[in-house]
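Milestone M4 deliverable, item 7.
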Amino acid sequence: MTYEDMEAALQDWIADTTPWSRHGGYDGCFRFSRRAHGEEDAGRLIFCTAKNTYTVNFRSSYLQCGATSRTVQAGEDWHRGNDLPDGDFSRHTWDRIIRAVFGYEVVRLVEERPPVSVEQEPAAVPG
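Output delivered:
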């Protein structure tokens, strides 16, 4: 499989994952670059969220993703990162990666509380 074939497959999978991307909704959000892996065509796909950068490395037989935080936590001087799923270059592996990205990004909600009412002074009547 050539680099061009792999990039086209990934673009199709991105479009299926984020349907509005077919209409230009995500232009400029995904960056592809060609990389050498020995004699084999290979590449890298990068996309970001508000806090993390995701790097997908690919070649005809392999697809892998890693996450790296772009911010440091209080008291640390390094950027946290994690390996996400990897496997053969297939839609199944892509779907596992996207589910892992979702899991990496979701945050716990705070307990829902009703808004507190604040009494206001009546408006002064012009006189």
